[in-house]
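Here is one chain, start to finish.
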Amino acid sequence: MKSLQYFHTFHISANANEITEVKNLEQLKGAWIGAKAQNLPVLFLGQGSNMLFVEDFNGIVIINRLLGISHKQDDCFHYLHVNSGENWHNLVRYSLERGIGGLENLALIPGCAGSAPIQNIGAYGVEFKDVCHYVDVLDLATDKQFRLSTEECDFGYRESIFKHRYRHDHVIIAIGLKLSKNWQPVLEYGTLVNFDRERVTVKQIFDEVCHIRQSKLPNPDVFGNAGSFFKNPVISAKQFSELQKLNENLPHFPQPDGRVKLAAGWLIEQCNLKGFKIGGASVHKKQALVLINENNATGQDVVKLAHYIRQTVAEKFAVYLQPEVRFIGAEGEIDSEKAIA
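Its structure:
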């Protein structure tokens, strides 16, 4: 067994049968064929920034190192073709250095470009779907490549077709981004609302987002973590109305479909859970939405802590939190919500 501790940002002491890094499609296909020949499960990993290993993985972990970015443009748009192993934040910096706006709100989100469509990553009012042009996928079972349009990806809040129909025997090999030259700032969240829409620059938003994230989120190299652990819950307008009667200062964000999104971190904080610990895992003292590996936590420590948080928030607000982080068991991904229910 080989240690996965330094291949994911939670830095849990979990192991895998084998770990192999791939730099091109031939190496990727070869690693997958080798695993299937041994009848072993396969896990594709980028930077492991959204993973929790709840136990040892009894298979082969393939580390994605498919690199490369190309840039084209026309009169109206910039087009970026990005191989899936590229670091996401480096991609944001790449666009910034070339005067391309549109990704600045997504600065410092950890992980690789290929993970962005799976989760439909988002921050400060922008989601991956807003900048996505296409996603290139390899069907490993048939050795065929195909391209999905944004509409075909079935994006939702931290949701996509890659969590369902293309979850098994498929791997994202590249993404395409389409960024308008008629850049419009998105300033609806946090301290971004303080900027003057007519004067603000892409660089100013990028710097502010980086400052916010660095001041609130722990460095995984100091305290292992996977960023935001829970999704922000989306509830009905009726349930929100009832909650607001009891909590006047309840942060909320109306959704296009009439439902209302709540701030999971605020709900957890109102339960006085900042700093709460189970085993080596704890709730971060500055950002309640982040669970950290404070002292050699096991995957089960984190699961137990997440369960306690979910139950405590449900008792106080009648809202059940769902993990944003993907849980990996012995044979592959498991149902994270069921694991903490």
